[in-house]
């Protein structure tokens, strides 16, 4: 999906990745992150957010909850993270990253609420009255009042499979009145998902119906119950191209993730300020019936993998780009498949992919590299897909 633009805009990353693999410094099934480019992207994102008076939390699941990357982004001024689940919050907090929002896509399990609230998250997103009550009771035990966001869902909203849940818009007031009885929580905002999506036919990022639900929910709470909201959180497809849209719809917060690595869908078709900063590196395992088989472990079913570059050097790889076969989500990704055709393939060749991923759901390693842009690349560390340093 992003191979062409990465070769065009960050070819040094590709060359570095090949050299690191061929020299044995990284293994097959490794994501290589260009830390310098990520920091530059973060600066641009922060500038755009400030210009539009939008607060942002960094999302780190797509880069494997990596604490070192999070620290570098925090130094730019994006100090707080959104944790897709409580486990991510624990990893980041252990390394000193402040937690902004936790619980949005994955609610906090009951027996983890105590531990998460001790991390002092800015807000916790809840899907139900029952979860709000659990949080309230634990917050009271800890002598605090926890600020919460309500995730709201309307009948016409888009909800991804595996992410269903939230307060039904038509029953929002009824639910909120119940939650307001609990002294341990304070409703400070609303959120939905996804607020924005890339439209490949039009080549633009567009509002979803969910964004309408977001603003309508905020209006209802402020008008009917006189609740002063601090946060109208509008996540999904948040990047330099869409931060102004958060402001335009009346939102206050965003949660960019792929924007830091330049792997936002719009960037595959139209150059954006964010430079591609991540590639997936593997190698040829074997060939069979006209296909080359590539060691897997890091493929992502929504990655839109279309092709890969194969070779033992950048020079050899540039003229050796192979079409990728579809990867079935019904099977384990032991191998990826490339159609050989008239290309030249050798066992052990480096394979470079650039696609949209979520590293935290893979079994890949993650190599952080700095100094690529200065022609002095050096590995800062090798991590697993959950942000733990391996070596």
From TrEMBL:
Keywords: Isomerase, Pyridoxal phosphate. The keyword Acetylation does not apply. The keyword DNA repair does not apply. InterPro entries: Ala_racemase, Ala_racemase_N, PLP-binding_barrel, YhfX-like_C. CDD domains: PLPDE_III_yhfX_like. Residues 279-379 form the YhfX-like C-terminal domain. Pfam families: Ala_racemase_N, YhfX-like_C. Its cofactor is pyridoxal 5'-phosphate. Gene3D superfamilies: 2.40.37.30. Residues 34-264 form the Alanine racemase N-terminal domain. GO terms for cellular component: cytosol. GO terms for molecular function: alanine racemase activity; pyridoxal phosphate binding. PANTHER family: ALANINE RACEMASE (PTHR30511), LYSINE RACEMASE (PTHR30511:SF3). This is Putative amino acid racemase. The gene is yhfX.
């Amino acid at each position: 999906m992003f191979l062409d633009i990465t070769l065009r805009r960050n070819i040094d990353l590709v060359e570095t990745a090949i050299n690191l693999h061929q020299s044995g410094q990284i293994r097959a099934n490794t994501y290589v992150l260009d830390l310098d480019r990520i920091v530059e992207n973060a600066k641009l994102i922060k500038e755009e957010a400030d210009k539009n008076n939008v607060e942002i939390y960094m999302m780190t699941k797509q880069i494997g909850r990596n604490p070192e990357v999070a620290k570098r982004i925090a130094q730019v001024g994006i100090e707080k993270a959104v944790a897709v689940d409580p486990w991510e919050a624990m990893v980041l907090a252990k390394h000193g990253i402040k937690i902004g929002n936790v619980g949005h896509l994955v609610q906090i399990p009951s027996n983890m609420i105590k531990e998460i609230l001790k991390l002092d998250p800015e807000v916790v997103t809840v899907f139900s009255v029952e979860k709000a009550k659990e949080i309230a009771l634990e917050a009271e035990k800890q002598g605090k009042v926890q600020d919460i966001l309500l995730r709201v869902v309307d009948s016409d909203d888009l909800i991804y499979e595996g992410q269903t849940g939230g307060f039904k818009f038509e029953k929002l007031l009824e639910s909120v009145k119940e939650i307001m009885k609990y002294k341990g929580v304070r409703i400070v905002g609303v959120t939905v998902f996804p607020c924005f999506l890339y439209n490949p036919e039009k080549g633009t990022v567009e509002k979803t119906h969910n964004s309408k639900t977001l603003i309508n929910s905020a209006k209802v709470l402020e008008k009917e119950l006189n609740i002063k909201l601090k946060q109208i959180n509008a996540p999904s497809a948040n990047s330099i191209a869409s931060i102004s849209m958060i402001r335009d719809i009346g939102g206050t917060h965003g949660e960019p993730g792929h924007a830091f690595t330049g792997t936002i869908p719009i960037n595959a078709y139209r150059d954006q300020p964010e430079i591609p900063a991540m590639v997936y590196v593997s190698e040829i395992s074997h060939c069979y019936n006209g296909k080359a088989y590539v060691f897997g472990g890091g493929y992502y079913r929504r990655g839109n993998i279309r092709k890969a570059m194969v070779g033992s050097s950048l020079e050899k790889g540039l003229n050796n780009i192979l079409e990728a076969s579809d990867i079935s989500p019904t099977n384990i990704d032991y191998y990826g498949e490339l159609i050989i055709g008239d290309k030249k393939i050798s066992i052990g060749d480096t394979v470079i992919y650039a696609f949209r991923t979520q590293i935290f759901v893979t079994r890949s390693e993650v190599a952080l590299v700095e100094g690529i842009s200065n022609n002095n690349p050096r590995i800062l560390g090798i991590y697993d897909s959950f942000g733990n340093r391996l070596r």
